[in-house]
């Protein structure tokens, strides 16, 4: 579903944010992208739909991420940013969720059905006609997920999905994500969330992939975690995580 080969990226000031990144993600896989602040995680996900362009190659379901294909690539790669307010700008929830599909040409009953389907998937159907800015942060994050799901993406990319959520909202979002039939790449500092949601984890540090293994294996390797400034919450261990 996703093939990343030898991706390098330097910002205009010369700072090298990614060097020689290779990653394959299979259809239906859920992968956590871990790494300390400044590792290059955000820079990496912004390459996946061509917001940033470095060297090397990226293919999504066989299609290269390159200028002539950007419209289709952006439909296939749905990125949910950390701040839902970056993605919600219409007067109602339904208009926000319908914005992308309407741009694809959907109208009338077809558009409405697409919106209902996406809102139902995140448990927000009853909030269809509300103003996004009247919703709680957790509800806005779910609507942001719906705006992306409404495009029926091939891969859902989430930047720190559990940040700023209370424990109940964090758990509810995990349940929603576990119920989706989608390929997921999730950037997170929340290691138990990675464990709960993703069978596989990748550690990015200093612009390079330094580990790619089952999440349980990575979280059990204290030396590896410490070397890359990753810390489990006090008392958490893979053995007792359930
Ligand atoms: N616009 C920019 N110009 C120059 N350097 C940048 C820019 N944005 C990010 N960087 C640098 O690129 C590197 C990678 O940053 P990036 O934001 O991708 O890291 P990250 O892993 O997402 O970090 P965090 O966990 O803090 O969100 C860092 O050294 C950062 O300082």
Automatic annotation (TrEMBL):
Domain of life: Bacteria
Domain ABC transporter span(s) in chain numbering: 2-231
Any one GO CC term of the record: ATP-binding cassette (ABC) transporter complex
InterPro entries the UniProt entry points to: AAA+_ATPase, ABC_transporter-like_ATP-bd, ABC_transporter-like_CS, ABC_transpr_CbiO/EcfA_su, ECF_ABC_transporter_ATP-bd, P-loop_NTPase
GO molecular function: ATP binding; ATP hydrolysis activity; ATPase-coupled transmembrane transporter activity
Pfam families named in the record: ABC_tran
Main location per the UniProt record: membrane
SMART domains: AAA
Key words, A-Z: ATP-binding, Cell membrane, Membrane, Nucleotide-binding, Translocase, Transport
Localisation per UniProt entry: Cell membrane
UniProt xrefs under PANTHER family: ENERGY-COUPLING FACTOR TRANSPORTER ATP-BINDING PROTEIN ECFA1 (PTHR43553:SF24), HEAVY METAL TRANSPORTER (PTHR43553)
Protein family: Belongs to the ABC transporter superfamily.
Protein name as catalogued: Cobalt ABC transporter, ATPase subunit
Originating organism: Stackebrandtia nassauensis (strain DSM 44728 / CIP 108903 / NRRL B-16338 / NBRC 102104 / LLR-40K-21)
């Amino acid at each position: 579903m996703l093939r990343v080969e030898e991706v390098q990226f330097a910002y205009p000031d010369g700072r090298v944010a990614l060097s020689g990144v290779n990653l394959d993600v299979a259809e239906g896989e859920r992968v956590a992208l871990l790494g300390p602040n400044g590792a290059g995680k955000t820079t990496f996900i912004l390459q996946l739909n061509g917001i940033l362009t470095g060297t090397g190659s990226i293919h999504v379901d066989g299609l290269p991420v390159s200028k002539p294909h950007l419209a289709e690539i952006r439909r296939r790669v749905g990125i949910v940013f950390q701040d839902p307010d970056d993605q919600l700008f219409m007067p109602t929830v339904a208009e926000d969720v319908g914005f992308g599909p309407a741009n694809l040409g959907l109208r009338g009953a077809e558009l409405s059905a697409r919106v209902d389907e996406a809102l139902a998937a995140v448990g927000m159907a009853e909030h269809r006609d509300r103003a996004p800015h009247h919703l709680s942060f957790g509800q806005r994050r779910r609507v942001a997920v719906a705006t992306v799901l409404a495009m029926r993406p091939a891969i859902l990319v989430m930047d720190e999905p559990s940040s700023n959520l209370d424990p109940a909202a964090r758990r509810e979002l995990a349940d929603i994500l576990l119920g989706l039939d989608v390929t997921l790449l999730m950037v997170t500092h929340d290691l138990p969330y990675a464990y709960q949601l993703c069978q596989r984890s990748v550690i990015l540090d200093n612009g390079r992939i330094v580990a790619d293994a089952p999440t349980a294996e990575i979280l059990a390797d204290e030396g590896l975690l410490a070397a890359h400034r990753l810390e489990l919450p006090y008392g958490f261990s893979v053995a007792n995580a359930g």
